[in-house]
Amino acid sequence: MGLKAPSASESSASEDKLKFVCGLASAEDLLPIEGGKYLIASSFDANRAVGLYLVDTAEKTARPMQLSVAAKLDEQCGACPGPPDFTKIYTHGIEIGPGDSGANLVYAVNHGGRESIEVFRVCSRDNTAAWVGCVLLPEECFGNAVCRMDDGSLLITQFFDKRVGLPTGQNPSVSGLVFHWTPGKGLAKVPGSEFAGDNGVLGSPDGTSVFVAAWAANEVLRIPLNGLGPRRSTKLDFRPDNLRWAPDGSILIAGQSSPVPTPATAPTVAGMPSEDWVFARLDPQSMASSVILREKGTASFGNATTAVQVGNTVWFGTYGGDRIAYIEMP
């Protein structure tokens, strides 16, 4: 399952081009807040129940955030039965959105105790994440990524149906899809979004299209949100994981290039051997892709899942391991 993490204040030495911030258990996804002064990172490790990390990008340190329940909940979340069990929570994809009084909201895919999107109001000053609500997912759904649209709605990927299992092999099962959650209306399936391992997801700036990574099919697709009209795609020679906007408007992709794994259950991926990985860029208009880095999985770092750019630095998350990596943009 998870690998033992060193102390949260420890930073490890550089390995070739990559440098590391240590002390995080399976930080599968991460995003910047406060102009990149900090990163929020998830923890895809069922054994630790960390929830979220706060990474100081200047000091190169990370520490678990203190989870609590806010006195004032987010009314938009609607019918939520209450907070998750913080002793079981483990998080997957995350999204950052605006909150009240200038605070940031973090939307986190959770597998611990329930399948859900848990919403937290985060404060970097005192390292706290106060739970304000949730969106429950179907019991059979193994969620993966979440994207907040400008209208407050959410795009949420189902990586696979638990009754079907993880898509693997030469002919992977197709039980992934994209949900569109709207406040007051709930979940609806995005037409034509059923792929082999729906993973990373982004909404187009104009709100009409969905970019989704079909992980097991080595493909990224652009599909209409309303299901009407053509769709476009690009084939890759690696398994695309999370999708993130770059400052120049392109899409950054990180993913794995080793043979498709076959774990018995999804949570065991955090304990798999270090996989080779790829960092690439996608033009959202032409859907043309270009590889920026190809890296071997090592004892220090592999299994890259996400790439986010802050200034001229690119940060990489991973589904297994005790650290995140960073590098100056090649």
Textual characterization of the structure:
The chain is mainly β and 330 residues long. It has one domain: TolB, C-terminal domain (Neuraminidase). It is 0% helix and 46% strand. The protein is built from no helices and 25 strands. The protein has strands at 19-22, 30-33, 38-42, 52-56, 61-64, 66-69, 91-98, 104-110, 116-123, 128-136, 141-148, 154-161, 177-182, 186-189, 198-203, 209-214, 219-224, 232-235, 239-245, 251-256, 277-282, 289-295, 304-310, 313-318, 323-328. Strands 6-10-9-8-7 form a five-stranded mixed β-sheet, with no helix packed on it. Strands 1-25-24-23 form a four-stranded antiparallel β-sheet, with no helix packed on it. A hairpin with a 2-residue loop joins strand 23 (304-310) and strand 24. It is globular. The two termini are 33 Å apart. Residues 1-14 and 263-270 have low confidence and may be disordered.
CATH first level: which class? Mainly Beta
For the record, what is the CATH homologous superfamily label?
TolB, C-terminal domain
Main sheet: strand order: 6-10-9-8-7
| Record field, number of beta strands | 25
The amount of beta strand, in percent, is: over 45%
Rg calculated over all Cα atoms:
18 Å
List keywords for this structure.
330 residues, mainly beta, Neuraminidase, 5-stranded mixed sheet, 4-stranded antiparallel sheet, 25 strands
Q: What is this structure, in a nutshell?
A:
The chain has strands spanning 19-22, 30-33, 38-42, 52-56, 61-64, 66-69, 91-98, 104-110, 116-123, 128-136, 141-148, 154-161, 177-182, 186-189, 198-203, 209-214, 219-224, 232-235, 239-245, 251-256, 277-282, 289-295, 304-310, 313-318, 323-328. The protein is an all-beta fold and 330 residues long.
